[in-house]
Amino acid sequence: MMTAETQINQISARDRFVTGMSHAACTVNVVTTDGRAGRAGVTVSAMASVSADGEAPTLLVCVHHLSPAASKIIENGVLCVNVLREDQSYISEAFAGRFKDELGDKFECTDWVALPSGPPRVADALVAFECRVVSAERVGTHYVLLCGVEDTHSARLGSPLIYANRSYGSSRRIDAPRSMRGVLNGKGIALNVGCFHTFGPFLMPALIRQLGGLDIGLLEGDQRRLTESLISGETELALIYDIGLDDRFECEALATLTPYVLLAADHPLARQSEILPIDLAAEPMVLLDAPPSGDYFTGILQAQGVEPVIAHRSVSFEMVRGMVAHGLGYTLLVTKPTASMSYDGLPLVARPLAGDCAPSHLVLAWRRGHRLGSAAERFARKCREQFARA
């Protein structure tokens, strides 16, 4: 029988390295050039500061040797490193060659400013570094370019587009602890709790009030953000879904959540006492796309042989309810707020989703092997009492 260790050893060093590097978050950058060799551009993730001091600030860029841009950058001797904003993934995709059938020229994807040294700059990039090539060395499959920065063009607003875990993302502020001593001694905030952002507003205010005297630090986020906070120790407990939890976590089920259909009050399906998945086959869907909700809700319909027609997506619970109330489609939800109207006052109706639909569970989760402190135990007891009364 092959052990897990044997299986790991049979994976090549290259594959282990590539998998490992997929977890290293980096900015997404489009490197452009123009000059006697011609204009070119390519998306790269390997870009880093080398030094701010010396004759000129320097940065490092790696470009695959088979990219047509590589030889042109070296021959032209100039380049612009455009660091993209979080809403500019389409520029990254264009210069990665994803839209060849739609773009005759990848530079058509956005507006450009010609820099004095020659290379084009994305007009509204988060930041752009105008550079000259100091040196170029072939290492493995890539050219490692050492670049002298001649000018920096910064936007006033925006956040960087991030690539990690083989997908795009965006940065999010995380406040640092006030002192290392407080972290090591477990002092400062008595308890840090995570809560899924869509149902947090319906649970946490009452719990915090009932736990008067307990200093609670609250972190709201989606499933990935909250599980990462548990693993890192940023939070001790989290109220989340049981979907996708693995053996790194221990959890206690608090409630079974059954999916339902939310509709505008004047929607024709609102006249039915319950709704079958097939009734939704031709209807536009407004998807609550906060991980893991998006996959869960679409999976419910797909399991019944219905491919949802997704018209709109939002990670905001109230935005989804508002779109439904304005007749933009139906949605599937599990959290049932007490208000039967949208945020802007339009009526909504909820109808049971009939058929064999897999429920989800709201759970209290913590890192496996972690012994809960007294504050966490008190919070857990109050959660059990609250859901026992529900």
What's the arrangement of secondary structure elements?
Layout: H1 4-10, H2 13-21, E1 26-27, E2 29-33, E3 40-44, E4 47-51, E5 58-64, H3 68-76, E6 78-83, H4 89-95, E7 112-114, E8 120-122, E9 127-139, E10 142-154, E11 161-164, E12 167-170, H5 180-185, E13 191-196, H6 200-210, E14 216-221, H7 223-232, E15 237-241, E16 249-257, E17 260-264, E18 284-288, H8 293-303, E19 309-314, H9 317-325, E20 331-333, E21 348-352, E22 360-367, H10 374-389
The value of Rg in angstroms is 26 Å
CATH fold-level label of the largest domain = Pnp Oxidase, Chain A
Total beta-strand segments: 22
Q: pLDDT average, as an integer?
A: 88
Lateral strand order in the biggest sheet: 3-2-6-9-10-5-4
Query: Which of globular, elongated, flat, extended, rod-shaped describes the shape?
Result: globular
Q: Which structural class best describes the helix and strand composition?
A: alpha+beta
Low-confidence stretches: 181-188
* Amino-to-carboxy terminus distance: 49 Å
CATH class of the largest domain: Mainly Beta
Number of domains: 3
CATH architectural group of the largest domain: Roll
Helical fraction equals 10-25%
Q: Determine the oligomeric state from the structure.
A: single chain
Describe the protein in words.
With 390 residues, the chain is of the alpha+beta class. The chain has 3 domains: 24-169, Electron Transport, Fmn-binding Protein, Chain A (Pnp Oxidase, Chain A), CATH 2.30.110.10; 182-254 and 361-389, Periplasmic binding protein-like II (D-Maltodextrin-Binding Protein, domain 2), CATH 3.40.190; 259-358, Periplasmic binding protein-like II (D-Maltodextrin-Binding Protein, domain 2, 3-Layer(aba) Sandwich). It is 24% helix and 33% strand. The protein contains 10 helices and 22 strands. The chain has helices at 4-10, 13-21, 68-76, 89-95, 180-185, 200-210, 223-232, 293-303, 317-325, 374-389, and strands at 26-27, 29-33, 40-44, 47-51, 58-64, 78-83, 112-114, 120-122, 127-139, 142-154, 161-164, 167-170, 191-196, 216-221, 237-241, 249-257, 260-264, 284-288, 309-314, 331-333, 348-352, 360-367. It has a 7-stranded antiparallel beta sheet, with helices on both faces. β2 (29-33) and β3 form a beta hairpin. The longest helix has 16 residues, at 374-389. The radius of gyration is 26 Å and the shape is globular. Residues 181-188 have low confidence and may be disordered.
